[in-house]
Amino acid sequence: MNRAFSALSAASSRASASVGSVAPVAALTLLGVTATDLRSAVIFVLCLVVAIAFHEFAHAIVAHRLGDPTPSRDGRVTLNPLVHADPIGTVALPIMAGLLHAPLFGWGRPVMTQPRFYTRKINMRAGMALVSVAGPLANVLQAIVTLAVLKILMVAGVHNAGLTDVLIIFFSLNLTLAFFNLLPIHPLDGGKILAWMLPARYGHIDDTLARYGWTLLLALMLIPGLLLTLFTPVAIVRDWALRLLA
Known about the structure:
The chain is an all-alpha fold. It has one domain. Helices cover about 75% and strands about 0% of the residues. Helix 2 (about 35-65) runs antiparallel to helix 5 and helix 6 (about 125-155) packs across helix 8 (about 190-195). About 30% of the residues are buried.
């Protein structure tokens, strides 16, 4: 009796484990998610984690060099991607967007900086502009390096479709992040750069953009086709750059 009960319990445990492992697969199948979708989502997230790590590190190191101890105190003057990744914006949402065929987007943990600590050699607005432009510049540099790697692989005769796909995704992602973050909307980097560039008499423009910044960002995300149209220059630059490799 005990042996029969033990055997039944073991069989029941194996069945439960089997059902538990099959359930997520079944759920993804019902949602129309394929293995290709899952692979694309994972690749995008990995590329995003690296791109954001350099982006946020650039913000942190420039603020640190200007005299602000805040990024160093917060442990942000590092290239460790885990420090800069946001669990929701860098991992969860991009994966869900990729699996559900929604537009891929994401963000990292913003670097906190206090302009009052900046060196007095520049004013605080100029300091904020330098810190802000460092992030998109880091993305542009990553895109250039990635393009160079693609060219080297082609010249060396290395033909690996998987690696090429990943590098092209990383290249395109960095171009997109640079362009998007330079939009003159708060809280994006471009908003802080615009605040520095505007003469004092046009300060009300910056105030308006700061007040309605999140509303404008939501509109960009939610209005069908608007974000895609806005990113047309990115697609043109990407296609032009990739044609140069041929």
